[in-house]
Amino acid sequence: MEKRYFTIGMAGHIDHGKTSLTKALTNVDTDRLKEEKERQISIELGFAPLYEDQEIQISVIDVPGHERFIRQMIAGVAGIDLVVLVVAADEGVMPQTREHLDILKFLGVKNGLVAISKIDRVDEEFIELVKDDILEELKGSVFEGAPFVLVDSLSKKGIEELKDLIITTLKKQEMRDAKGAFRLPIDQVFTVKGQGTVVRGTVYEGSVEEGQTLKIMPEGLEVKARQIQVHHKQAQKAYAGQRTAINLSGVSKEDLERGDVLVSSEHFIVTNTVDVAIRVVEDLEHMVKQRMPIKLHIGTTEVMGRIVFFDRNELKEENGEILCQLRLEEEILTKRGDRFILRRPSPQETIGGGWVIDPRGNKYRFGNQTIEELEKKKVGSPKERITAAIFEAKSLTLGELIKRTALDEETLKEFLEDDDFVLYNGKEYTLKMLINSIEEDIYDTLQEFHQTHSMKLGLNKAELLQSMQKRFPKSLLDFVIENGIANGTFDRKGQFVSLTDFVPHVPKSWQKRTENMLNEIKKDGLKVRYYKDYFSDSGIPDSLEADLRRFLEEQEYVVHLDEQFAYHGDVFTEAVEKLRMGTGEEFEVGNAKEILDLSRKYMIPFLEKLDSKGLTKRVENKRVWQ
Questions:
Q1: Which residues lie across from 249 on neighbouring strands?
Q2: Which of 137, 225, 513, 560 is 20 to 30 A (C-alpha) from 507?
Q3: List of long-range contacts for 568-572, beta carbons under 8 Å, 24+ apart
Q4: Residue that is last in its domain, among 218, 236, 263
Q5: Exposed, middle or buried: residue 493 (CB in 10 Å: 0-12, 13-18, 19+)?
Q6: What is the CATH number of the domain that holds 603?
Q7: Which DSSP letter does residue 83 get?
Q8: Quick one: which H or E segment has residue 54?
Q9: How far is the C-alpha of 264 from the C-alpha of 216, rounded, in Å?
Q10: Could you report how far apart the first and last alpha carbons of the chain are, in Å?
Q11: Is the overall model pTM greater than 0.85, yes or no?
């Protein structure tokens, strides 16, 4: 069985015993800063290993509870799989407990346990009252119906029971996606003497191994994972759900900050305009107004921006989900499905939270049409999202699809096997319906061209592509043309593309005059007049002459000797045969003049035409038959 990795969080009001409980469970004091020791509160995120066997590994984050440290609390909770809500028996549910509950709900944490701490400070009757109070407060939250454990960190009462419950719960839980591209939002950056820059965080998804080349986003700095540690022990690899410290080469501490993201792939999107679905807290104190400044907490990133509504101008109370957009002052790295918290910068207040519908937001008009489009994006199935992404771009590589749909490679490949999708060039995906649509457009274009230019072999491929390249990638158009040739819809002669059943022909209104002209040229044999004179005498207008000249030569009705003279095709063929029969393997100009009875003005261009057609080859003063 593949080993699974989880991180749990201790959440709750300040001074309710989270750090003491973490120490009781793990034998690790997570208060590591001098200031934390002196003030007896957690300022930074504290981490400790809780349990490990062959099947599972569990780490603990002690999340700060004080309101001033809400940012660190959000950074910690964003990466956890299960939350232990700590409520002191002697105080019950407090303001920060409620705010933590809201944040946990918005961040989509689905598993929770309740630890009633400091039970030695109160009697059993009071504990029952506290329980009732907690049950009431937890209605509608992730903790409604969650198991309770009574604990006391000093006497160790209930500690083993809580630990066993955590392990049992997580053994039944699915672990984070270890198959996708590696992503680690950085929550700590520091240096180790002799080692250099180290970053720490919870692996959101994927895995990383020692020596792997990575990127710091959104800056795009390339680094290498020199060493990996999990709970101060060196590891060759770290997986989704693990708390990990990575020693990086190629970057200094000054180049990094909390909120940067360490990734293994180009597939993640860096953006400053995000389409989102949000919910607001029930007891919102202040009105949220259109384009109001907000502070976004996503992963370990904190960034300022504005909220943009498309169906309202203000918000005070709302039970349902609101579809809107966040326009940020700085770029962030995110993907569809990422959870976040929104806070008001001043006065400080948690507004709500939600999830990313589309990290590639555009500017939209105010109104129901935009809401309807966002609704489609929100509820779209994987296949619908893939189809929409390809339809918009016309063709995408697998990497581009991963970025646009926020689906992992394995899921994408499974859906892309559907007949509705087509892989071409060995790397690009498009839609079968798009291929059919483009083929129809090309068919109509060629049909119209044949009607207007019936004497041409077809439309020059470069010209055909140019007319459609504003709407479709050249690679896709090339594929559709080649595919059409293969299935018999199109034909190609050199650089010209035509419909398969098209036969070049003289327009009906000029057919008789063209026949008469050809008869005149044939009647004159090898001693023709100037080619242009035949057109004039036959009443063929100058506007038609160039196309008709080309057509007659392409169809071999005539053979151009040069710009001035042309022979009828049959006359030229007979002359070649007569000359071949009257000479040996080679001949001189004099021999040819004698056999064909031609003056120099015809003879020289005739022989040069033989050379250009590859029938003869000039060697000094002679010509050799090929």
A1: 224
A2: 560
A3: 568/518, 568/521, 568/522, 570/522, 571/521, 571/522, 571/525, 571/526, 572/609
A4: 263
A5: exposed
A6: 1.10.10.10
A7: E
A8: none
A9: 9
A10: 75
A11: no
- Strand pairing partners for 113? 84
Give the closest residue to 45 by CA, choosing from 24, 70, 72.
72
Please give the sequence-ordered ranges of beta strands (E in DSSP) within 388-529, or none if there are none: 396-397, 421-424, 428-431, 459-460, 490-493, 496-499
Residue ranges of the alpha helices (H) in 508-584?
A: 511-523, 531-538, 542-554, 569-582
Name the residue with tokens 């003063």: 621
The arithmetic mean of pLDDT across residues 380-395, rounded, is: 86
141 and 212 in a common domain: no
Residue 603 carries which side chain, given as an amino acid letter?
A: M
Q: Are residues 157 and 8 in the same domain?
A: yes
Strand, coil or helix: 314: strand
pLDDT in tens, 522-580: 999 999 999 898 888 888 888 888 888 888 888 889 999 988 899 999 999 999 999 99
Which token pair is 57? 């590994």
Residue 505 lies in a domain: no
Whole-number Cα distances in Å, 324 to 92, 269, 299, 350, 480: 36, 19, 20, 17, 39
Q: What is the pLDDT of residue 38?
A: 42
CB 493 within 8 A of CB 457: yes
- C-alpha 10/C-alpha 83 separation (Å) is 6
Dist CA 232 CA 235 (whole Å) = 9
Burial class (CB in 10 A: 0-12, 13-18, 19+), 561: buried
The CATH number of residue 235's host domain is: 2.40.30.10
Same domain for 135 and 25: yes
* HEC sequence for 269-302: EEEEEEEEEEEECCCCCCCEECCCEEEEEECCEE
d(CA 337, CA 340): 10
Q: How far is CA 67 from the centre of its chain?
A: 38
What pLDDT is recorded for position 453? 85
Range of the domain at 294: 271-377
Burial string for 274-284 (b: 16+ CB within 10 Å, else e) reads bbbbbbbbeeb
Q: Is 93 found in the same domain as 20?
A: yes
Q: Give dist(CA 201, CA 241) in Å, integer.
A: 10
For residue 322, the SS3 value is: strand
- Kindly list the distances between the CA atom of residue 177 and the CA atoms of 120, 382, 407, in Å, as whole numbers in the listed order: 41, 16, 11
How many alpha carbons lie under 13 Å from residue 574 in its C-beta half-sphere? 10
